[in-house]
């Protein structure tokens, strides 16, 4: 099911469901957990966007510290599971999936997930979806006594009923990772006090966590690179052109990736350019590689699974990508990441990593996608992305590349 359809369903089906559940809750009374009690199990709900799961690492670790690894659960759409498994923060059997394959199957999957939640006796739910109605409904129907989520007190977000016990006011000045963390912190406070929340959010950066890969896994990816390049190219720069239609406003024009690739190949004879992408993007990425027309330019779209893609990042010098999942996945490796922002702001969504380097034009109309408008925009021409020039990106990549050359030398990365 595509994103646009999910949003329509969430709006037109989710709104009346939230209203009916709110009426039900009002009739039967709004019960709050006792102040001296603490939940013994915690479920996170983040149905979509794998990149946000990476931003939720601190919140997940905090929940594990509170109730133990075996008592932390996560509800998501099945296609967004891979990165959660790679993070390995909770047991795999604690991940509850909903398969979003058409409306009927999704509803059946949601009912199955709710049945499992009740069997597990989930005590606390943290809704990471901000103002989605579907996740608010699932939070209430889970039967959890502690329910933490954002509430539209003054109409500042979408209507999602009055289904939470801990109703937080959304703060658009906090980074997303901070926003997720304070939702866990809210469990330590009485429900009746909200939206007043006398807590100063932590300003610490990323955990610095990096995935480890064994030599046999790395050898598989090195073999793929040698098949594409032989052993002549010394360094790899990756470009994620994001040729899908998932979020077209976030896309940097494809011709600029071609121009950037040619500039880099011309400036650095010892480097190779790899285009990455999902299997569905393979043919579009093939066309980009064809237009670059260099034996040092290759396509990996659809040729790796997620873990192999992260190994590819770890074997590379730099990744250039728009604001998307790969920008966050790459922070789990040692690659430098240049991230192009447009309709959303890096102040809230850039990874808090010293290896992340955001570029943002900062136009008056940007950001136009936010939590308050359900991440929908009336914009049909992403000038904010087009304002980021090839020269700007090239200068940033060149600075990082030359710094890496000095730091790590000029050895062959394929033989590392």
Automatic annotation (TrEMBL):
<dbReference type="Pfam" id="PF01075">
    <property type="entry name" value="Glyco_transf_9"/>
</dbReference>
<dbReference type="GO" id="GO:0009244">
    <property type="term" value="P:lipopolysaccharide core region biosynthetic process"/>
</dbReference>
<keyword id="KW-0808">Transferase</keyword>
<dbReference type="InterPro" id="IPR002201">
    <property type="entry name" value="Glyco_trans_9"/>
</dbReference>
<dbReference type="GO" id="GO:0005829">
    <property type="term" value="C:cytosol"/>
</dbReference>
<protein>
    <submittedName>
        <fullName>Glycosyltransferase family 9 protein</fullName>
    </submittedName>
</protein>
<dbReference type="GO" id="GO:0008713">
    <property type="term" value="F:ADP-heptose-lipopolysaccharide heptosyltransferase activity"/>
</dbReference>
<dbReference type="InterPro" id="IPR051199">
    <property type="entry name" value="LPS_LOS_Heptosyltrfase"/>
</dbReference>
<keyword id="KW-0328">Glycosyltransferase</keyword>
């Amino acid at each position: 099911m595509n994103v646009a359809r999910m949003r329509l369903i969430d709006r037109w089906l989710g709104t009346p469901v939230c209203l009916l559940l709110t009426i039900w809750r009002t009739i039967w009374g709004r019960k709050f957990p006792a102040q001296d009690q603490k939940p013994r199990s915690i479920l996170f709900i983040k149905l979509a966007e794998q990149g946000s799961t990476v931003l939720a690492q601190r919140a997940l670790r905090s929940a594990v510290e509170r109730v133990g690894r075996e008592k932390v659960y996560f509800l998501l759409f099945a296609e967004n599971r891979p990165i959660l498994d790679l993070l390995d923060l909770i047991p795999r059997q604690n991940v509850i999936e909903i398969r979003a394959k058409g409306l009927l199957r999704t509803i059946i999957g949601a009912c199955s997930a709710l049945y499992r939640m009740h069997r597990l006796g989930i005590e606390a739910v943290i809704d990471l979806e901000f103002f989605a109605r579907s996740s608010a409904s699932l939070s209430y129907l889970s039967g959890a006594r502690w329910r933490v989520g954002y509430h539209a007190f003054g109409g500042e977000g979408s209507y999602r009923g009055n289904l939470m016990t801990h109703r937080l006011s959304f703060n658009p000045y906090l980074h997303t990772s901070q926003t997720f963390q304070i939702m866990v912190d809210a469990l330590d406070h009485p429900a009746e006090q909200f939206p007043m929340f006398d807590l100063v959010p932590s300003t610490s950066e990323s955990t610095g966590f990096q995935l480890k890969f064994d030599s046999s896994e790395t050898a598989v990816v090195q073999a793929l690179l040698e098949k594409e390049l032989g052993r002549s190219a010394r360094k790899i720069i990756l470009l994620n052109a994001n040729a899908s239609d998932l979020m077209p406003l976030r896309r940097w024009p494809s011709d600029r990736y071609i121009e950037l690739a040619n500039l880099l190949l011309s400036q650095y004879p010892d480097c190779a350019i790899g285009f990455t992408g999902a299997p569905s993007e393979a043919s579009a990425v093939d066309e980009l590689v064809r237009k670059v027309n260099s034996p040092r330019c290759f396509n990996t779209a659809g040729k790796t699974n997620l873990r192999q893609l992260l190994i590819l990042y770890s074997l590379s010098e730099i990744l250039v990508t728009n604001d998307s999942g790969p920008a966050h996945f790459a922070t789990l490796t040692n690659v430098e990441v240049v991230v192009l922002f447009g309709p959303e702001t890096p102040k809230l969504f850039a990874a808090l990593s010293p290896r992340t380097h955001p570029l943002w034009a900062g136009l008056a109309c940007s950001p136009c996608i936010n939590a308050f408008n359900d991440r929908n925009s009336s914009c049909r021409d992403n000038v904010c992305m087009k304002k980021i020039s090839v020269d700007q990106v090239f200068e940033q990549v060149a600075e990082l590349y030359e710094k890496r050359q000095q730091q790590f030398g000029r050895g062959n990365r394929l033989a590392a």
